[in-house]
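S.,

As promised, the heme C run. Input:
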Amino acid sequence: MRRAGAALGLLLAACEPAAAAQVEHATAIDLSHVSCGECHEREAREWSGSLHARAWDDPIFQREYASTPSESCRDCHAPSTSAPGRATGIDCATCHVRDGHVLATRTSEAGERAHPMRIDAALQTPDHCAGCHQFAFMDDGSHAVDEALQNTLVEFLASDASRDGATCQTCHMRDEGVVSHRFPGVEDPEQLARAVDVEIAARRGGGRITVDVRIEGADIGHAFPTGDVFRRAELSVTTPAGAHEAFSMQRWLGDTIDADGASLHVRTIDDSRVPPPGTGELRETLELVDDGADAIAWELRLHRIPTTVDARTLAGVTTSHLVARGVVAIAGPR
Ligand code: HEC
Ligand code: HEC
Ligand code: HEC
Ligand code: HEC
Ligand code: HEC
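Predicted complex:
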């Protein structure tokens, strides 16, 4: 799959310096990512466990990069390191360093003494994240260039979270109210646990078990799942004897005919994800045949790379994470 170049102009746009504080600046400071951690030990530790730190080295990224190498991948996966070879992912400098200055949402005297600083209010807005988390397909001939490959900002702007004044940072950069650099996502069980509310009812009738599923976005600011088109959630129901049914929540891509009625381009043809909170809910009905069961077990999992993804490059690297599970009694006479 080929990806669009980043809209990094937005992200890198320098802002007006704040009214200069009368503090003497240290000037000869190494603004590379390695140095930041010497003084900002907590931020460096939190960040080092995040997918941002692994955005380049991650084996899943490297597998796909090996099959579709493009300079544009660096725009989002390793913007600070333009030289070939090892890169440091989305490091401190990617978000914080411009023109020899450290960007911050506020400055302190101690900070001004440690390094030249500049206030950048954009650090607190979704636009800061959107430069990499909202983009269209690359013009590769087969994909429609007006189609979002990742659509997280647009989903966010439609959500209750955005209307309530939350930002991406509210949910992804706070630990008990304190700024955090862990950037929790698919690998964080607590983050997954707050994503959706699941309601399940099972009843017997007509020789089968009918399972009604309702899933609604909870403490989330976009669709579930969001981000890469690889991400896919699956809800499965199982009886003790092993009867099994499932459905998946994902964007489905396929060839579509353009407005000119002649050419074909890949676009989203169906979207079965849980919509952003405030824009609807997901309802599905599953049917099982099992005369002996009193209850069904259900499980909701988020697959970072599902088995259905491009077997050529990503076979064998599938990963899946538990979001929620439960057991529901079957209503009605056996
Ligand atoms: C020599 C030590 C040192 C180095 C190296 C350093 N900082 Fe700082 N930085 C400080 C101190 C001291 C403060 C004041 C606040 C604090 O104590 O955390 C600060 C504050 C900040 C702030 C918050 C603004 C404020 O004034 O509270 C940001 C953001 C920041 N630094 C980013 C960075 C980044 C990014 C790097 C690497 C490019 C870096 N720093 C390197 C010492 C350092
Ligand atoms: C993906 C972008 C991103 C990366 C990578 C990143 N930061 Fe930040 N950082 C931010 C944003 C955004 C804020 C402001 C958050 C807010 O106030 O809501 C921030 C805030 C800070 C602060 C101020 C904390 C406070 O309590 O106000 C420091 C210090 C800091 N970062 C240091 C670092 C260091 C050191 C690294 C690398 C180990 C790093 N950051 C990596 C985006 C980033
Ligand atoms: C109200 C809280 C909330 C807000 C606001 C929010 N998120 Fe999330 N986000 C979550 C939760 C919960 C998850 C975990 C579930 C999941 O992985 O989908 C998540 C997951 C993600 C993921 C992992 C991809 C995936 O779905 O597996 C990415 C990337 C992400 N968010 C980016 C963003 C960006 C960018 C913004 C702002 C435009 C944002 N989020 C705003 C709560 C929020
Ligand atoms: C320079 C580009 C860039 C910027 C800026 C950026 N991100 Fe990311 N982010 C990425 C990439 C690339 C990944 C995926 C790394 C991987 O999995 O290989 C990622 C991963 C994440 C994840 C983990 C997703 C998962 O599936 O678990 C979260 C959460 C996230 N970003 C939130 C944010 C937030 C919030 C901001 C703004 C404060 C932000 N990002 C800014 C490029 C960026
Ligand atoms: C405009 C920014 C952008 C560009 C350009 C980009 N990516 Fe990404 N990529 C992201 C973000 C953001 C994520 C994380 C989304 C999520 O967590 O769901 C990501 C995730 C991925 C993942 C999934 C990694 C994981 O952790 O599961 C792969 C693989 C990937 N990108 C490969 C590539 C390749 C190869 C290229 C170049 C052809 C590329 N990307 C170019 C922003 C970008």
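Residues 2-6, 51, 58, 60-61, 64-65, 68, 70, 72-73, 75-77, 132-133, 135, 150, 185, 227-228, 230-231, 304-305 surround heme C (ligand 5) (CB under 6 Å). The two ends are 50 Å apart (CA to CA).

- D.
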